[in-house]
Every structure is written in structure tokens, then in C-alpha cells.
Design goal:
There is one protein chain. The protein is built from seven helices and eleven strands. The chain is α+β, with helices and mostly antiparallel strands. It has a seven-stranded mixed beta sheet, sandwiched between helices. A two-stranded antiparallel sheet has the order 2-3. A hairpin with a 2-residue loop joins β7 and β8. The chain starts with 7 loop residues before the first helix and ends with a strand. The structure holds adenosine-5'-triphosphate (ATP) and magnesium ion. The site of magnesium ion has 3 residues, from β8.
Length: about 280
């Protein structure tokens, strides 16, 4: 029976270097054998890591996040969705209108600025406003999407960044009453194929904000959430037609595509470049 294992510093470094394997279950015979194995392994990983950095830096290889965004945007273009871009800075009233009031858990995750304004934790306020006003202006179905950063104070680990990219699409005044759920499922599955993700399942959930929602789950991780209207929040936004909306977490999808085990190395960072450790 061996009892020598990687030290916590060694383990930490291997994680940083994106080591996917595990050490031998029985451990190593001696500290010297362990250290030799660690040196071999880390040298290999450092080499691989350096190759990844070089690809990103000198060979124009796109990050997985950029690739996923590009695939989804190209699919949305084919589907007739137009890109919109709404402010990062929103008002407290917008949150109230989303029913994210003082008692709501998401309220505690908001980054506040001066003057009762905050960094948006979601894209819905901007999209609610735009789908309403574009429909008023044109009196036709409105298919729009926004892809941009959302901000939430998060304590939870592998799947949560404080700033992450959300792609939110919405189809307004387009589907007939009663057909929303089917359309949502259709868009969800098309979006995942377009992004290059396999093995997802769709699960009905109850959300604090949206009531009944659909979640797209892969290996226990939520990649996206969808909702439909008419909905209890709609009246506050002056919205009265049917809608179908889907919010996709781009780093989480990139994690599924690249096989990384957390979003930390895929999000905005000065320590990682496209999943590769910089130092
Ligand atoms: P979770 O329950 O996993 O915290 P959520 O249900 O609060 O997520 P939504 O508001 O449904 O998240 O946001 C839509 C999508 O945005 C999620 O399905 C997820 O992919 C992504 N997302 C949400 N919060 C984060 C975060 N902190 N970091 C990275 N991605 C996130
Ligand atoms: Mg969700």
C-alpha cells in the first residue's frame, strides 16, 4: 500500500495547467517517485499550454468563446433575427419591472453604480423595451437578439463568472397563442446544434423571475434558460403579444464545446487566454 500523493501545491499547479487526469489511486511509493512524476507531467502540460498560447497569439486561432458566438450569430442571421445593442448601465426601476425587487435573491447580486443605476445582470430589460417599441413602429413580428456582458456578484465556483456573455434572443408577436412552448423547444435545439453542442436535455423549471421556464442542461450544467409570454411581467413593460425568449450563457456553451471543466479560464481574464494559462 503506497501513501505518497501529490502535494496540494502540485495539485493546484496541475489544475492551473488544465490537467484532466488523476494521479494513481494507490499513490506513489516514495516522495522522489511522486516528484519525478509531477515534473514529467507538468513539463508536458507546460509544453501543451505554450502551444495553445502560440496558436492564439501567432496563428490567429479564435477563442472558443468567439467561435461559439460566431456560430450562433451566423445561425441567427439565417433565421432572420436582427442584432441589437442595449446599454450595460440600467436603472433600479428596470430591475423592479423585472420583479427583481429588494426581497429577490438576484437583487443581492447586482453591482450598483451611483444615481440608483447598476450594471445589467440580464439583457431582458433592454429587449423588453426594444421588442415593444419596434413592434409599435413596424406592426410586424420582431425577431431580435443581443449578445453582451451581464454582471452578477457570484460566490459559486465552476459555472459562475462575475461578468459573463449572454446571448438573448426573442421572437415577439410571431407565434400563435399555444405554440410558444413548441417554438421555444425548437429554437433551443437549433441553437445547440448551431453552437456545436451535443448531449443536451431540456428540462422544465420554475424560475423566480419568469415562472415556468425551460432549461437546457448538459451533464448537470445549465447552458441556457428559455421563457415564453404572455407573462405576468409583460404588463409592466407594455407588452401584450406572444413571445418566446432564450438566454444562452456563451462561456458555458464554450465550456461544453472545448471540454474545459469550468468557465473561469474561458471568461474575461488576465490569467488565461482561450483556456491556456498565461504564467
Ligand atoms: P444559474 O442557476 O446556473 O446560476 P441562472 O438560471 O441564474 O443560472 P439565467 O438568468 O437563466 O441564469 O441566465 C441565462 C444563462 O446565462 C444561464 O443558463 C447560464 O448559461 C448563463 N449564466 C448565468 N449566470 C452566469 C454566470 N454567473 N456566469 C456564467 N454564465 C452565467
Ligand atoms: Mg436559468
Amino acid at each position: 500500500m503506497h501513501s505518497v500523493y501529490f502535494t496540494s501545491a502540485q495539485k493546484q499547479r496541475l489544475v492551473e495547467l488544465n490537467y484532466a487526469g488523476t494521479e494513481p489511486e494507490s499513490g506513489f511509493e516514495t516522495p522522489e517517485a511522486r516528484d519525478a512524476a509531477y515534473r514529467r507531467l507538468s513539463a508536458e502540460l507546460v509544453k501543451k499550454n505554450r502551444e495553445l498560447l502560440a496558436k492564439a497569439l501567432y496563428h490567429g486561432e479564435k477563442s472558443t468563446v468567439a467561435l461559439v458566438a460566431e456560430r450562433l450569430e451566423s445561425w441567427l442571421g439565417e433565421m432572420g433575427f436582427a442584432e441589437v445593442s442595449t446599454p450595460h448601465i440600467i436603472t433600479a426601476q428596470c430591475l423592479d419591472k423585472m420583479s427583481i425587487t429588494e426581497s429577490h435573491p438576484l437583487r443581492k447580486q447586482v453591482f450598483w453604480l451611483d444615481g440608483g443605476r447598476c450594471l445589467r445582470p440580464m439583457l431582458a430589460p433592454g429587449l423588453y423595451t426594444l421588442m415593444r417599441d419596434l413592434h409599435k413602429a413596424l406592426n410586424k413580428p420582431v425577431r431580435i437578439y443581443e449578445i453582451g456582458t451581464c454582471f452578477r456578484k457570484e460566490q459559486r465556483g465552476a459555472g459562475h463568472l462575475n461578468e459573463f456573455i449572454m446571448l438573448n434572443l426573442v421572437e415577439y408577436a410571431s407565434v400563435k397563442q399555444g405554440e410558444q412552448q413548441n417554438r421555444l423547444r425548437e429554437l433551443a435545439s437549433l441553437a445547440m446544434s448551431a453552437a456545436g453542442v451535443e448531449g443536451t436535455e431540456i428540462i422544465a423549471e420554475t424560475s423566480d423571475v419568469y415562472g415556468e421556464t425551460l432549461d437546457i442542461i448538459r451533464q448537470g450544467t445549465e447552458l441556457a434558460s428559455g421563457a415564453t409570454g404572455p407573462h405576468a411581467l409583460d404588463a409592466a413593460w407594455g407588452v401584450f403579444e406572444t413571445w418566446v425568449g432564450l438566454g444562452i450563457g456563451i462561456e458555458r456553451v464554450a465550456m461544453a464545446v472545448s471540454g474545459h471543466s469550468g468557465v473561469g479560464r474561458l471568461g474575461r481574464s488576465t490569467a488565461y487566454l482561450n483556456g491556456a494559462r498565461i504564467n
